[in-house]
Fold:
Amino acid sequence: MMNIPPSLNTIIGQQPYPLLFTIISGSHLYGFPSPDSDYDLRGVHILPVQEVVGLETGNETIEVSEFRESLERESLEIDLVTHDVKKFFLMLLKKNGYVLEQLYSPLILTTSPEHQELKSLAYNCITRHHSHHYLGFSATQWKLFDKEQTHQIKPLLYVYRVLLTGIYLMQTGVVEANLIKLNEVFNLPYIHDLIAQKLVGKEKSILSDVNADFHRREYERLRNKLQEAYESSQLPEVPSANVALHNLLVRLRARRDEY
Structure:
C-alpha cells in the first residue's frame, strides 16, 4: 500500500469545484518514483450549469503547482491538473492514452459512483488507433534520451513504459501503465535494473554503464512490435460510447450540487 502524504488530500480539498475523481499519475503510477519525485495529481471536476451556459464561463482546466512541507523530505512538489467533465469526455473519445491511464489509475485519492460508471463506459472508447498515441509519445521520449551525451534514466524508462503499455493495450484492450506489472508479462531482463537505479537515485539521475546502441535496437524492436500489434489488433476502429457519455454528462451537471 502506498503511503499518501497528507498534503495531497489538503490540496484536493481546496479545489473550487466538486470532483468526480482524483488520482496519482506520473512516476508513482508507472512504478519508478525517485525519492525526490513530485506528485502528479490528475482528476475531473464538475462545473455548474451557469458557468457552462452563461456569459462568464468557468475554467475547463485547472492547474495548481505548489511546494508543501513534508516530514519525509525538505519539501514536496505537487502538480495538480483537473479537467471539466465535458472536456475529459471529449478527450476520451479521441485516441488519447493519457486520459485512459488517469481514469484507470489504481492510485485513487477520491472517487464516486459515477467514477466507477465512467470506467465501465470508457472501455467502449478504446480503439486500435490509440497505438498512435504511444508511438508518438515513445518517439518524443527517445529523442530526449538520445540527444544528450550523458543519458538520463527517466526518459529511457518512459520509452519502455509507453511502448509496453501500447502493445499490451492492443493485445488485450486493458490499460496498464505500471512498468513493473507490464514486465511480468514481457519479461525484459534489463527493466529491473533500470527501475532499481531510478528508485534509489534522483529524478534526473544519469544512467550508469549505458549501452545506447543496445537500447536503440530495443526501442526500434518494440516500436515495430507495437505497429504489428496495431495491425493485428481486434479492438474497434472507432469508439461507441458517445451516447452513454452524453447521458452521464447531463446527469452529472444536473446532480452537481449533491457532490
Summary: The chain has a mean pLDDT of 93.
